[in-house]
Amino acid sequence: ATERTFSIIKPDATRRNLTGAVTTLLEDGGLRVVASKRLQLTKEQAEGFYAVHRERPFFGELVSFMISGPVVVQVLEGENAVARNREIMGATNPANADEGTIRKIHAESIEANSVHGSDSAENAATEIAYFFKPEEIVG
Ligand code: CMP
User: Fold this and answer.
1) How far apart (Å, rounded) are the C-alpha atoms in residues 106 and 21?
2) Is residue 116 annotated as a catalytic residue, yes or no?
3) How far apart are CA 32 and CA 6, in angstroms?
4) Are 24 and 76 in contact (CB under 8 A)?
5) Residue 110, class by beta-carbon neighbours within 10 Å (0-12 exposed, 13-18 middle, 19+ buried)?
């Protein structure tokens, strides 16, 4: 079924001017960008977004990385968009990512891994609502 997922182009990618290159991989993979904006996250926004990881040892570094430069938050739409986006992104650690995936091609490390994507339809809905008003999404 057609569904929506949430994506972030992370600061390592915006810093290297890869917003278009990453978006092209998403589009070529069959997803449509139905909302997009470039933001400088605040510490509070990043901590809130990654609240599920608060107890992880890498939480502090993750938050400081995510506020180290601009991000592009996007809503992606397509057939099985959550799973499709995860295929297009590749594994969290670029060392384990398949050939042709965004992380294999562009990521620098497990932290600077160029993109975030929702891991379930339920989390996608929560993450989309964290950054977008309904009227900002145009399908
Ligand atoms: P993301 O999908 O944005 O969700 C949490 C992020 O934590 C993850 O991608 C990684 O970029 C980041 N991260 C940093 N260090 C680690 C680690 N050791 N294990 C898993 N994720 C990590």
Assistant:
1) 9
2) yes
3) 11
4) no
5) middle
| Band of residue 130 on the pLDDT scale cut at 50, 70, 90 | very high
To the question of pTM greater than 0.95 for the whole model, the response is yes
- State how far the Cα of 77 lies from the Cα of 82, in Å rounded to an integer: 9
Q: How far is the CA of 92 from the centre of ligand 1 (A)?
A: 7
Ligand 1 contact via 92 beta carbon (within 6 Å): yes
What six digits make up the tokens of 102?
């965004």
Would you say 32 and 78 are in contact if contact means Cβ atoms under 8 Å apart?
Answer: yes
CB burial class (10 A; 0-12, 13-18, 19+) of residue 26?
buried
Q: Which of 4, 84, 106, 116 is catalytic?
A: 116
Q: Residue 61: its pLDDT value, please?
A: 98
